[in-house]
Design brief:
Blueprint lengths: L1 H4 E6 L2 E6 L10 H16 L5 E5 L11 H4 L4 H7 L2 H8 L5 E5 L2 E3 L1 H8 L2 E5 L3 E3 L13 H9 L1 H10 L3 E2 H6 L5 E3 L4 H13 L3 H16 L2 H15 L3 H11 L10
Parallel strand pairs: 2-3, 3-4, 4-6, 5-7, 6-9
Antiparallel strand pairs: 1-2, 7-8
Helix pairs in contact: 2-5, 7-8, 11-12
This protein binds octanoyl-coenzyme A.
The site of octanoyl-coenzyme A (CO8) has 22 residues, from helix 3 and strand 5.
Length: 257
């Protein structure tokens, strides 16, 4: 089941996870989310991989949690099903994780993209939290992460009306870091991930952890946490190698230690 729902590809030091349920607009069923989580965790453990890309390819990222699976669920069913754990698995990935979004990224799909470390969008990307139109509201971190990304007023606008942001507005608002042509969405995201994968691995891992903490807590807590991780890097061989190589005017040789 897992192999059919996601494709996993290793392009050099980049692991690419492609959701493969396009006929249902990659609606995030229990099975699809489980397969994405399995793939992400496998790549996270793979020493040959330095960064990950999560995509649905050029057509669609994901049109949200699978409404067909949830339509008849009670609150008690939802508690026991604990579908939210799948989104939490992505949150715990330690390596840099890039969302390559083309087409719809709605509801749980938008929340999935926002859980990634940064979003590269194609010019056909559409972001939104349209749950209100089906009597719901965001449930996988959307109200908090969207508000952090675009500010309260725009987040309210999107969450209360269900309207979508196109790629350019999403970039202007800070939700998206880069916009690329639709047909290049995966290649551009992989190129960016490949660049990140060349960086010293511990720096990337701890810098990701620090930015994530800063995004989810107060400035004071973010700064405090950053300081500890900064000092921790002085215990790494790569930090000394990087600084010495700079002083000695040579290329650094990083070992991920
Ligand atoms: N769930 C299930 N099936 C879906 C979903 C979805 N979210 N979105 C699309 N599909 C299916 C359609 O039912 C259709 O299937 P079929 O051919 O079998 O009828 C197929 O995909 C194609 O969709 P459309 O025919 O509707 O395509 P259109 O191009 O006409 O419309 C839209 C595209 C506008 C994206 C439309 O499909 C749509 O509005 N989809 C629903 C979007 C939505 O409401 N998303 C939010 C869902 S709720 C959610 O995500 C909560 C997240 C909280 C997670 C917490 C975990 C528990």
């Amino acid at each position: 089941m897992s192999e059919e729902l996601v494709q996993v590809e290793r392009r050099g030091a980049v692991g690419v996870i492609t959701m493969n349920r396009a006929r249902q607009l990659n609606a995030l069923s229990e099975e699809l989310m489980s397969a994405v989580g399995d793939a992400a965790e496998t790549l996270d453990r793979d020493e040959a991989i330095g960064a990950l890309v999560l995509t649905g390819g050029p057509e669609v990222f994901a049109a949200g949690a699978d409404l067909k699976q949830m339509a008849e669920q009670s609150a008690v069913d939802m508690v026991y099903a604990n579908r939210i754990r799948h989104w939490d698995r992505l949150r715990r990935i330690a390596k840099p994780l890039i969302a390559a979004v083309s087409g719809y990224a709605l509801g749980g799909g938008c929340e999935m993209a926002m859980l990634c470390d940064l979003i590269v969008a194609s010019d056909s990307a559409r972001f939104g939290q349209p749950e209100i139109n089906v009597g719901l509201m965001p449930g996988a971190g959307g109200t908090a992460r969207l508000t952090y990304a675009v500010g309260k007023s725009v987040a309210m606008d999107l969450v209360l009306t269900g309207r979508m942001l196109d790629a350019w507005e999403a970039q202007r608002r800070g939700l998206v870091s880069r916009v690329v042509p639709r047909e290049l969405i995966v290649d551009e995201a992989v190129a960016l991930a490949a660049e990140i994968a060349t960086k010293p691995r511990l720096s990337a891992r701890l810098a990701k952890e620090a930015v994530t903490r800063a995004a989810e807590t107060t400035v004071a807590e973010g700064v405090e946490h950053e300081r500890k991780l900064f000092y921790l890097l002085f215990a790494s061989e790569d930090a000394h190698e990087g600084m010495r190589a700079f002083v000695e005017k040579r290329r650094p040789q990083y070992r991920g230690r």
